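Section 5: illustrative case.
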């Protein structure tokens, strides 16, 4: 039997990128490669990259310098750059980073075997063609680094919202939805192999629309119907498209998790307009009110950008005020990073100083820390159903899992194992984690 060559794949950026790396893993496994976690034994290194902020790109560049070392030790080693940076920089990246042999954009992964052949023949190989219809629907992802309990399912690709600060519409192309049948079948297969949670992924899942007219609410309902023991999550929602229909479907199925990620970006109407977000503060607050009334107990998280073009102290205060009002359970918070080619780069000045950006980011992070702590404190004394994902990092005697609200809970193991559900009473917390104890013993202890 021919021995398989070894692929080491490293992923940066969003969950979509991690999901894409699994598709790449599958394509390469069909082409006589196997994946390895040991970079030193790799014949091929892929780095799946992110362009969303300048520091994401800088991190990848630094990593590429380290790969040089491996190339010196193994001259036949091939290095490929995949994903958003490949798409944004195209052949320019090869000119700047001589160690790179292959460049592949997010819609061209089926072409990888051919590109590799070219690279093995000593040529530089590149494919950054974006597609109007590629969804990799028929490719069964190789579940890299999986805990065997929770998995991502990519349901759509691309983005056409053109938020003025964002590079994604340029790196990931037009919006397209994957055939619902293939999504439901993938979720059934995962459940049958022991998975207990799927996260439906897309840049804007609420605008999912298949050729047969299935919308996101109906799709998530079909996945929820597979089995009440299969949890369903989704990411990410654009506030402008969060429908009442979806909230009502969520309310009807307890296995659709009580957690919504609703990126607000800013609490200031002036900023939202410049950002081309297509909603205002009032409308966003209305969405939260709808969530609170239709889905009581639903957790809420968000993304915030601070220091966008011309942001004043008042705009910043508006963001802090909205955060307090929404009482987010969790937030991802970023300094604005101007991206080449975006609308903001062309139309607006990146005129907030680094010091002011840092100061505002600190204030936002400090506030969120307090909000997260308060939210966790309110859970102490309550009991939650926890899906166990793994043994706790610090001690093999404890398990780690998550509530429907997406909060991490650590508790003594007893006879439970990853993949089990446990009723856990919360006894203590920090701003990041809940601690508790299982209140009902597993069946075999009764
Ligand atoms: N600068 C800083 N943050 C950004 N994001 C997107 N583009 C930028 C940028 N140019 C943030 C947004 C988005 C999250 C994925 O990344 O908050 O929701
Ligand atoms: Fe980064 Fe956006 Fe590309 Fe994801 S889609 S890898 S967040 S630039």
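Designed sequence:
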């Amino acid at each position: 039997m021919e021995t398989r060559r070894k692929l080491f794949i490293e992923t940066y950026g969003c969950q979509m990128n991690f999901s894409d790396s699994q598709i790449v893993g599958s394509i390469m496994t069909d082409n006589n490669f196997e994946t390895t976690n040991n970079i030193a034994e790799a014949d091929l290194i892929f780095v799946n990259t992110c362009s969303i902020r300048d520091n994401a790109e800088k991190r990848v560049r630094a990593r590429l310098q380290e790969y040089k070392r491996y190339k010196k030790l193994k001259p036949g080693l091939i290095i490929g750059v995949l994903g958003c940076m490949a798409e944004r920089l195209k052949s320019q990246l090869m000119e700047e980073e001589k160690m790179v042999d292959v460049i592949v954009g997010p819609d061209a992964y089926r072409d990888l075997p051919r590109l590799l052949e070219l690279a093995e023949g000593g040529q530089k190989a590149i494919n950054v063609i974006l597609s109007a219809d590629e969804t990799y629907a028929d490719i069964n992802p190789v579940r890299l680094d999986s805990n065997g309990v929770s998995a991502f399912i990519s349901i759509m690709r691309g983005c056409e919202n053109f938020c003025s600060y964002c590079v994604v519409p340029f790196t990931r192309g037009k919006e397209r939805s994957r055939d619902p049948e293939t999504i439901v079948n993938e979720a059934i297969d995962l459940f049958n192999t022991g998975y207990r949670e799927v996260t439906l992924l897309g840049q804007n899942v609420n605008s999912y629309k298949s050729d047969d007219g299935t919308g996101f609410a109906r799709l998530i309902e079909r996945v929820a119907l597979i089995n009440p023991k299969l949890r369903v999550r989704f990411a990410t929602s654009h506030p402008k498209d969060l429908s009442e229909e979806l909230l009502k479907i969520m309310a009807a199925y307890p296995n659709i998790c009580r957690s919504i990620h609703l990126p607000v970006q800013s609490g200031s109407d002036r900023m939202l307009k410049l950002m081309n977000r297509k909603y205002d503060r009032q409308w966003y607050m209305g969405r939260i009110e709808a969530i609170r009334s239709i889905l009581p107990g639903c957790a809420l998280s968000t993304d915030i950008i601070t220091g966008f073009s011309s942001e004043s102290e008042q705009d910043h205060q508006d963001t802090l005020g909205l955060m307090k009002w929404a009482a987010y359970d969790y937030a991802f918070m970023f300094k604005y990073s101007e991206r080449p080619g975006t609308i903001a780069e062309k139309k607006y000045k990146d005129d907030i100083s680094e010091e002011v950006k840092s100061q505002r980011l600190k204030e936002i992070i400090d506030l969120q820390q307090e909000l997260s702590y308060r939210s966790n404190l309110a859970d102490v004394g309550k009991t939650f159903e926890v899906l166990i994902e793994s043994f706790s990092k610090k001690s093999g005697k404890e398990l780690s899992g998550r509530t429907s609200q997406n909060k991490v809970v650590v508790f003594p193991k007893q006879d439970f194992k990853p993949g089990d559900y446990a009723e856990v009473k919360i006894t203590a917390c920090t701003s990041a984690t809940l601690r508790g104890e299982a209140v009902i013993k597993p069946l075999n202890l009764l």
